[in-house]
Amino acid sequence: MKAIVLKGFGDVDVLVEEDVEAPTVGDEEVLLKVAGCGICYRDTIVRRGFMKARIPVIPGHEVSGFVVEMGGSVRGFSRGDLAASLIYIFNPGDPECGLGRENTCRGNRWVGEDVNGCYAEYVKLPYWVLTRIGDPGEAGPEAYSFSACVIGTLIRAYKTLGGVREGEYVLVTGASGGVGLHAVQVGKALGLRVVAVTRSEDKARLVEKMGADSVIVYRDRFAEEARRVTDGRGPDIVIETVGGPTLEQSIRAVNRGGRIMLIGNVDPKPQQLLLGLIILKEVKVLGVLNSTLRELGEAVELIRSGRVKPFYKTIGLEVGEVREAHRILESGRSTGRIVIKP
Ligand SMILES: [Zn+2]
Q1: What is the 191 CA–ligand 1 centroid distance (Å)?
Q2: Residue 62 alpha carbon to ligand 1 centre in Å
Q3: pLDDT per residue as tens digits for the range 54-70
């Protein structure tokens, strides 16, 4: 089968197109014909060597696909089913991986890092990390590729860890990016008042179209404006999709007792934190590590019902296009998600 393989760490030319053996399934594994493989900012971090991926490896952890083969012990799937996957493989026999915590389980193997991922025509995964989608509805089968990594993570941030209540104000940073545009939509689906911040004047209209109640276009600072549009209090919760470059402004903006949900970080270097302000305002800064099966299920439902409309463009399984997608993500120029459709 055709695949894009990570041959080492470095610039985009470590991604190479190869003809490799199609995987053969074990007893508890399912072979998916890839319908969509989302390209994530994480993939660029993996490529640069920050995630200690095994080399060579087929990258890509955001997968939806059709079941074409199954091992003898697979339960709950039939050939032809459309399925979406978690982005890691947990051990269901480990008590630490118990319900709702499988994302932080110690022994997890990450798809596209420790095991081969979906920059390929086929990918194999154990059946317990998959969710059956059924009728995809108005969304294309490839639209479900990022249900775990994007929509599921947002559900974990908003509901599971963030405990949002209807009518609260949320601030979304990086609102025109691949995660941000969906953070706006999920926020609205949960009944929140959404304040979106972006540095791109051109993309502000799009963010508005996704349902944001107010959009702040900023150069260096947005905290003051964010407080102004939230009745002077500041947002109750921040969905921080950018990390380092925006965190200080998020801490300055957030309401007393507010929560800052760290979903993404574009800068792997250590960051300065405003510890005094975090104490004075009793801010909670919480890390969000992707999603669990329950959140993946909710994500699929939000997409299928049309309450969240995945926003993405597709590219082919071609090394040139994949390298260019990595460049776009790293430059911060991306709008919505980029999905490989083999
Ligand atoms: Zn991802």
Answers
A1: 25
A2: 6
A3: 999 999 999 999 999 99
Mark residue 179 as left, alpha or beta (left: phi above 0; alpha: psi -120 to 50; beta: remaining).
alpha
Inter-residue contact 252 to 230 (CB < 8 Å): no
Exposed, middle or buried, 9 (CB in 10 Å: 0-12/13-18/19+)? middle
Q: 302 CA to middle of ligand 1, Å?
A: 18
> How far, in Å, from the CA of 312 to the mean position of ligand 1?
13
Asked if residue 107 has pLDDT above 80, the reply is: yes
Measured CA to CA, the distance from residue 153 to residue 236 in angstroms comes to: 19
Residue 79 CA, ligand 1 centroid: distance in Å? 26
Half-sphere exposure of 8 (CA within 13 A, CB side): 4
- Residue 96 pLDDT > 90: no
How far is ligand 1, taken at its centre, from the CA of residue 264, in Å? Answer: 10
Residue type, 155: I
145 C-alpha to center of ligand 1: Å?
Answer: 9
Protein residues with C-beta less than 5 angstroms from the ion ligand 1: 40, 42, 62, 149
Domains 2-149+291-340 and 150-287 share a fold: yes
What digits encode the pLDDT tens for the residues 316-336?
Answer: 999 999 999 999 999 877 888
CATH number of the 150-287 domain = 3.90.180.10
Q: Structural domain boundaries of the chain?
A: 2-149+291-340, 150-287
Which superfamily is assigned to 2-149+291-340 in CATH?
Medium-chain alcohol dehydrogenases, catalytic domain (3.90.180.10)
**In this predicted model, what pLDDT tens digit does every residue of 133-174 receive, in sequence order?**
999 999 999 999 999 999 999 999 999 999 999 999 999 999
43 CA distance to ligand 1 middle (Å) = 7
Distance 1 CA to ligand 1 centre (A): 23
Burial level of 167, CB count in 10 A (0-12/13-18/19+)? exposed
Give residue 22's pLDDT: 95
CA of 266 to the centre of ligand 1 (A): 13
